Amino acid sequence: MSTRIGRGAMTAGVVAMAVTLAACGGGSKSDGSGQGAKKKDLKIGLLLPEKQAARYEKSDKPLIEKMVGELTSGKGQVVYANAEQDAARQNQQVDAMIAKKVDALIIDAVDSKAIGGAVQRAKDAGIPVVAFDRLAEGPVDAYVSFDNEDVGHVQARALLDTLGTKAKDGQIVMMNGARTDPNAAQFKKGAHAELDGKVNIGKEYDTKEWKPENAAANMRSAITALGKDKIIGVYSANDGMAGGIISALKAAGVSKLPPVTGQDTELAGVQRIVAGEQYMSVYKSYAEESPIAAQMAVALAKKQSLISIANSKTNSPTKSDIPTALVPVVAVIKENIRSTVISDGLYTIDEICTPKYKAACKSAGLQ
């Protein structure tokens, strides 16, 4: 059973562990014997799933590189590859990392099941694997993610809050993520726990590859089936899909957009929230999650304990009791943009309030 970890406690753990590992002198010249023999500099493999969501290239990669550098006195190397939503390519990238003899591997799986064999090959080669953001199958050594069921709860509660007493006055559409992503199943589970019995779910889709264009196509089908005036809300599992959904609603001539949820607080999503087109997003602090993945990888590469990093355990379909760190999430709506994404430095007011959104920003008190 996984336990939620408070944001303050997690941040303190990140700092404390960074100091501890840096003090261990990753990549330093000392071998602990006082003879000054040079140790091999650490090489950490990083495999990310795609470039469509801005977070991977903008946040995760540089944050992981920064933390690996801090933990190894600047001598650790991050070897990076992106699968661009191709599970077969990601399997090949694991093999390439094995050939490069990385000391540990961080994998955000395109397809959690399909990657299992590659994880086993890494393990057989003596390379520990950190499952990052999505729980890969196979003998992973550690897992860090957000509290994914809670993401679904947060999204659904926000939708119910804004619908209020009109929650059963029409139909809602559920636009879930890809079936190949285990996180999508957890988001959906959390959302259904809140929504079932409280709203009428007219149509529900699992969206192939999380692509906005696939979400838009699904939404067009829902509008045809239900009628554009009968849809009172849309549960969208992330911001990218929310953009496709909103485009489809506009193209269908919906003048008063129903509330649409999201996740990832992508800049375009935040701007749509300011403009009143998207109701909410889920803010996930990559500044907390990504460094933890780096900590885990460096600790495993050095054969150090994860006890001060992983505060819970998780079971996958293929392995039990995986050391786990879960980062909590926050609902972002128009009224708290300043106290969340702006306050945390994710975006500046100038980045959000481009000329197109100046008037909306002024109305929302973002000046």
Account of the protein in words:
Helices cover 42% and strands 16% of the residues. The termini are far apart. It has a 7-stranded mixed sheet with strand order 2-1-3-4-5-11-10, with helices on both faces. It has a 3-stranded parallel sheet with strand order 7-6-8, sandwiched between helices. It has helices at residues 7-23, 55-71, 87-99, 116-124, 148-163, 182-195, 212-226, 239-251, 267-275, 286-301, 338-342, 349-352, 358-363, and strands at 43-48, 77-82, 104-107, 129-132, 142-146, 171-176, 201-206, 231-236, 281-284, 312-314, 322-327, 329-332. The chain contains 13 helices and 12 strands. The radius of gyration is 22 Å and the shape is globular. Residues 1-38 have low confidence and may be disordered. 49% of the residues are buried. α1 (7-23) packs parallel to α10, α2 (55-71) crosses α10 (286-301) and α5 (148-163) packs parallel to α6. By secondary structure, the protein is of the alpha/beta class.
Low-confidence stretches: 1-38
| Strand numbers in spatial order across the main sheet | 2-1-3-4-5-11-10
Q: Approximately what portion of the residues adopt beta-strand conformation?
A: 15-25%
Q: Main sheet?
A: 7 strands, mixed
Class from helix and strand fractions: alpha/beta
Number of helices: 13
* Average predicted confidence as pLDDT: 90
Q: How much helix is in the residues? A: 40-55%
User: How many strands appear in the DSSP assignment?
Assistant: 12
How far apart the termini lie comes to: 44 Å
* Secondary-structure element order, N to C: HEHEHEHEEHEHEHEHHEHEEEHHH
Q: Cα-atom Rg, whole angstroms? A: 22 Å
